[in-house]
Specification:
- This protein is mainly β and 408 residues long.
- The chain has a domain of 92 residues: Lipocalin (Beta Barrel), CATH 2.40.128.
- A hairpin with a 4-residue loop joins β25 and β26.
- The chain starts with a helix and ends in a 7-residue tail after the last strand.
């Protein structure tokens, strides 16, 4: 009897071992993204002004007869009573604000809007892929790094979302608005805040590595080279900080609000201020090589190419100066103040005006064309592959180009 039971039990175990093999804990799927897919595809522009020096100007042939490929409409929000920042609670936030420039990763375009959404679009068609809502308007230019999107908002947070679907990875609270556009190098974020701090965060979790208090709010986007970084402040200072610990190496008094994002070219640094003075400095010491006084405020980031500096001013003029001496080569008068930062590609300059027009000039200062929108253009245009992407306060992001390249 016992032998029979043992034989039956053995047969049963043999049966189940064949039908249901030994269970093992499932091996976790390898979720690591291959390193090569973390690199931006060719033709991508992943941060404000294209790189950590703010020297990218544009790429591709700029049309001489613009055709509207597509336009994408954003929404709007009201300021609201809870903000308590001295702004009319019924004030409407709409469109793409200063200094919003799109970021591009392959065929994907990312742009922040005053309506509190970060939008992901197909750059060829303007079709929406996803949108992410934060607590208030977005003024900065987003940065894409290792398939994550980083940006600040008037909700006092630095946000990190996934490029694939816009899902939140993390967000970090600071003490005020964040209009500065993040600069990311070697998994480290450098960015300014309107709470009077310049920050260094980890890119993976948004943890503070260091923060340095400065005089005034920082809307300027940080430029980085070697072991130092540069940013301006609202109290009229340009700062040079150590990347390692945030210590102030030197500071230069510009004399007024310095929202302009510095541009680094070799050993030289270019920056302007709201008093209308544009400076060329020794980036190592902050000593002045030359300065030029425009007729209006300067809050635009200059474009530097082929020994020339192109900058806009609140007096409605585009100035072309020699990069080595600040000598005026030409001036062009638009019909509105310039808050938009000029973009240069294919011997053409593209810049927006507060009159609502997008202008295209030759490098000799001649008008090639203008394109009307419905409100101020304070945003920064981007030229990639000959296509022009630019937002307006009328609530639209526009894509212009040459008729022969329109996708059918």
């Amino acid at each position: 009897m016992i032998k029979a039971i043992k034989r039956t039990l053995f047969c049963s175990l043999l049966f189940f071992s064949i039908i249901f093999p030994t269970c093992k804990k499932p091996k976790p799927a390898d979720t690591a993204i291959p390193a090569d897919t973390l690199l931006p595809p060719e033709g991508s522009v992943t941060m404000f002004r294209g790189n950590q020096y703010h020297t990218f100007c544009g790429s591709g042939k700029v049309t001489r007869a613009p055709v509207l490929f597509w336009k994408f409409e954003t929404g709007y929000i009201l300021e609201g009573t809870k903000e308590k920042r001295g702004v009319d609670p019924k004030a409407v936030w709409r469109g793409i604000a200063w200094s919003g420039q799109p970021a591009i990763w392959g065929d994907t375009l990312i742009i922040g809007s005053s309506d509190s959404y970060l939008y992901c679009l197909n750059k060829n068609t303007g079709t929406i892929i996803w949108k992410y809502k934060c607590g208030h308007s977005i003024k900065c230019s987003p940065t894409i790094y290792k398939r994550k999107v980083y940006f600040g908002s008037r909700d006092n947070h630095l946000h990190c979302v996934d490029l694939a679907d816009g899902s939140l990875v993390w967000k970090t609270l600071i003490g005020n608005d964040m209009d500065s556009s993040p600069c990311i190098i070697n998994d480290t974020i450098y960015v300014g805040g309107e709470d009077h701090y310049i920050y260094c965060f980890t890119a993976d979790r948004g943890k503070v590595i260091w923060k340095t208090k400065v005089a005034g709010s920082v809307e300027s986007s940080v430029a980085v080279i070697d072991s130092v970084l540069y940013a301006g402040s609202s109290r009229g200072y340009l700062y040079c900080l150590s990347r390692v610990n945030g210590s102030v190496l030197w500071q230069f008094k510009t004399g007024s609000d310095t929202d302009v994002s510095p541009v680094v070219m070799g050993d030289t640094l270019y920056v302007g201020c709201e008093a209308g003075v544009f400076y060329c400095l020794d980036r190592h010491t902050g000593s002045v090589y030359w300065k030029y006084k425009a007729k209006g405020r300067v809050i635009t980031t200059p474009a530097l190419t082929n020994g020339r500096v192109y900058l806009g001013s609140g007096d409605g003029r585009i100035y072309c100066l020699t990069a080595d001496s600040g000598k005026v080569i030409w001036k062009f008068r638009t019909d509105g103040g310039i808050w938009s930062s000029p973009c240069v590609s294919d011997s053409a300059i593209v810049v927006g005006s507060r009159s609502g027009k997008l202008y295209c000039l030759s490098i000799d200062g001649d008008l090639l064309w203008s394109f009307p929108t419905g409100a101020n253009i304070n945003a920064t245009p981007l030229v990639v592959g000959g296509r022009i992407y630019c937002g307006s306060h009328d609530g639209f992001l526009y894509c212009l180009g040459d008729s022969v390249t329109v996708d059918r």
